[in-house]
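Practice problem 4.
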C-alpha cells in the first residue's frame, strides 16, 4: 500500500535493507549508545568540539549518532 509519498511500503523496506547492508544507515535496533566506553566518548567529544552545525550533523550521521547525544 502506498504511503503519503506514493511509494509502496515494500519498496521503501527494500531500499532501507539495501542501505543497511551497505552500511549507509544504522538501524536503531543495532545502535546501542552504551557500546561506547569512556575513552570513545572522550574522543568523539574532542573530535567534534570545534565543528559547525553542518559538520557535526554530517559526522553524527556517518557514525549513527544523534547530535544531542554528542553534545551531552
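Answer key:
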Amino acid at each position: 500500500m502506498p504511503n503519503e509519498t506514493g511509494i509502496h511500503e515494500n519498496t521503501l523496506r527494500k531500499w532501507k535493507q539495501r542501505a543497511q547492508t551497505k552500511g549507509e544507515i544504522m538501524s536503531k535496533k543495532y545502535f546501542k549508545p552504551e557500546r561506547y566506553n569512556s575513552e570513545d566518548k572522550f574522543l568523539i567529544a574532542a573530535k567534534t568540539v570545534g565543528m559547525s552545525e553542518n559538520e557535526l550533523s554530517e559526522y553524527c550521521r556517518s557514525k549513527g549518532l544523534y547530535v544531542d547525544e554528542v553534545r551531552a
